[in-house]
Amino acid sequence: MNFPDNLKYTKDHEWVRIEGEMAFIGITAFAQSELGDIVYVDITTKGATLEQEAVFGSVEAVKTVSDLFMPVSGEILEVNKVLDQKPEAVNSDPYGDGWMIKVRMTEANEVAGLLSAADYKKLIGVA
């Protein structure tokens, strides 16, 4: 399983790629493998400013629905339109085409509290 070192991770299995004041957010390879085949991604919070750990949407797999949590506080600027037609991109490319939202961070200092790839691997027991 792949956990890129350039990303930050949450205990709720989201990943964050920081680009200046912007953050791209998705779910980890571990999360998508645990959920199984993703059939629908429901994110209706575009334009909203949400606090860290707030629910920004949900992902539906064949057997379950799981909430998605904000790793950092910020304004949701963009939702990945690819997922409307191809929600399975979350399974096939969770760190690339399967990204979910783009956020303008309002509390950049929150990034320091996120997990490194090594810490995330320890959390899920693959270190």
At the first level of CATH, what is the class?
Answer: Mainly Beta
Structural class, judged by helices and strands?
alpha+beta
Taking the alpha carbons of the first and last residues, their distance comes to: 11 Å
- Write the CATH architecture name: Beta Barrel
CATH superfamily: RNA polymerase II/Efflux pump adaptor protein, barrel-sandwich hybrid domain
Largest sheet, strands/sense/barrel:
6 strands, antiparallel
Strand line-up of the largest beta sheet? 1-2-3-9-8-5
CATH topology: OB fold (Dihydrolipoamide Acetyltransferase, E2P)
Q: Treating each run of at least 4 consecutive H or I residues as one helix, how many helices?
A: 4
Overall helicity: 10-25%
Characterise this structure.
This protein is of the alpha+beta class. The protein has a single domain, classed as OB fold (Dihydrolipoamide Acetyltransferase, E2P) (Beta Barrel), CATH 2.40.50. It is built from 4 helices and 9 strands, in the order E-E-E-H-E-E-E-E-E-H-H-E-H. It has helices at 29-35, 82-85, 89-92, 117-124, and strands at residues 8-9, 14-19, 22-27, 38-42, 49-50, 55-61, 65-69, 74-79, 101-105. The strands form 2 sheets. Strands 1-2-3-9-8-5 form a 6-stranded antiparallel beta sheet. The protein has a 3-stranded antiparallel beta sheet with strand order 4-6-7. A hairpin with a 3-residue loop joins strand 6 and strand 7 (65-69). The longest helix has 8 residues, at 117-124. The radius of gyration is 13 Å and the shape is globular. The protein starts with 7 loop residues before the first strand and ends with a helix. The relative contact order is 0.26.
